[in-house]
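## Example pair
The file below holds two records. Each record gives the amino-acid sequence first, followed by its structure token line.
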Amino acid sequence: MNRKKLGTAIIILGTLSAVLFFVAGNSIGSTGQIMAQIQSQAGNTVAEAYYQNVGELAVGISIFMYALGVTVITSSIGYGGELLLPRDNNEDNTVNKRIRNNYDELPEL
């Protein structure tokens, strides 16, 4: 598989994964909010407290799912985009040149 096809596949799969993370986060978050608002008519019970705490946990998990989705999409776009760019025939790519130039400009201690 050549670099452009691999880069495109990585970007597409990363985007699909991120969408699924966002959908899961939304579903878990809305269910958690509903569970956190459960109240009994008789007063505070152990079951009510349990479901409220589980609901708050589900909201936290949904936030984690959103963060994971953002991480997946940015990583896949970065890595896939790097594969889509034309390859530099030199072993010394531009990032290494910039780092080396910045290092050479540092004053001696």
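Second record, same layout:
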Amino acid sequence: MKDDSQRPQLLGRIASAGLFGIDGVLDVVDRFQGECMEELRALGPASERSESGGASLEELTERLVVDQKRRELRARIDWAAHARQVLKARKRAPAAKTGGQAQDTAERI
């Protein structure tokens, strides 16, 4: 398995977008989710043949690798939905007080 090169890129984009406020971070999250959804669509539908015993060992291992990628992408899409929900809630809330409240919010994310 290779290292996840998207993670540092995502964190860098979020940090940079943070300078533009919540809308900038929301834009980064939306683009990230879109990229993940495109990758997931490109993988195609999951195959049930791998579980039926009709696949060769080579086919089975390839499908397991693709399944791992599919599950990882779904988790990223779920994270993006969560991040959007948290950011939109923050946007609707009155200006945050200084001190612990901002740190508490960051820890929940």
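Notes on the second record: The helical segments are 6-17, 22-43, 49-52, 57-92, 100-108. Residues 57-92 form the longest helix (36 residues).
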